[in-house]
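Chapter review: from sequence to fold.
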Amino acid sequence: MIRITCSQTKPERKEMALVRFEERNDSWTRVLQNDQIEIVVGIGKKKEFTERKLHLLPRKIIALAKANRIKKLGVCFEELEKLTRVKGGACSELLAKNFELANFEFIEYKTKPEEGWRFVEEIIFFGNISASVKKGVEEGLLIAEEINACRRLANTPGGEMTPKVLAKEAEQAAKGTKVKVTVLEKAEIKKLKMGGILGVAEGSKEEPKFIIMEYAGKAEKPIVLVGKGVTFDTGGLSLKPEQYMNEMHMDMSGGAAAIHAIVLAAKLKLKKHIVALIPAVENMPSGSSYRPGDILRAMSGKTIEVLNTDAEGRIILADALTYAKKFEPRLVIDVATLTGSAMGALGQRASAFFTKDDALAKRLIEAGERAGDYVWRLPLWEEYGEEIQGTFGDIINTGKTRYGGAITAAMFLYEFAKDLGCPWAHIDMAPRMTSIESDCLAKGAAGAPVGLLIEFLKK
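The token string follows.
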């Protein structure tokens, strides 16, 4: 992690690069006469410098520093603060968070180069620094740490990230916090009649796990986060094409996000009652796999007619949503890399989300803007329910056409969420599973939507 400190005076160390900001589009580094290194960062036109651009600015600074093997940076906080409407602790939190996000790379399986890694080691914010700015830095680094931990989990190869390992990672992440972790084994899952989870898991030698995490920061009805934990998705007997399978170790990204969102809430000492539920399975083809045409009975009692074994995420989430009722929640949000259709609709710059609650939709969008973890609402109209009506079972696990797949997947989940007795939202984070070039982040998992969830929970 970068060490970020605050100082009232400008650092004069020669090995530390000073960062300046100008109204221009380009950026560069240069060496001044006294051997002081300077990074000049173009912000474009000041009047067009939005909060969205502010999220990317510190990431670009880190990219410049890494490219030039600069280990230490000095940033005049006052100068940058004048460029934006985001002030004080909110500004320093945003900067610290994005500095650390940009500095992260998944190097667990790489040999260290002789010249060493290019990570930035230290940043000093200097100028008139208030207590709120210092607190913002601390919170920003804490948020980034958990987002990066989520990225590490999602980037871990499927051969080493099994349901059993994911459960152990949840326990490890919660150590030292007030998050209680319970892991249900296959026998307990069977006793609960979670036919969806059991059906999807049948093709794998790895037994399913059902991870329950609870943080009681306040005596109230909980907010329940549900995260899809498919640790590797081959598509099952409806096998994926090879070009779509290499990233499917990240199909547990929703589960990783739920794990680290609740742990982060505990570390931030939020006065909230939060529960996270993560059904963890592998979806593998074998002689024991569930088949197209099979009918599974979910925990709710509803039957699911399986038309495609590659639409498995919604099946395991169905049981998790039903289990959520045990907590009498005031709100439920599920997170899943659910459909390629969401990516087809929105590209890779925002997650899709669905809810019947307009107030909840507004708050999710606002939280996404604050976090730089954007979402866009898609419809959840009753008419789409016709697309998932079963012939031999109550509902089918894919739509009747190849159109609107993200919506029909959400309608499937709504069949189980509508009995919760509280507002519910579904976030299809498939568009944001991996970073893209303009994110100015390392290749691999993007860590969405941990930032969105924690901003939502904070407010």
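Two observations follow directly from the output. The chain has a mean pLDDT of 96. The first strand starts at residue 3 and ends at 7.
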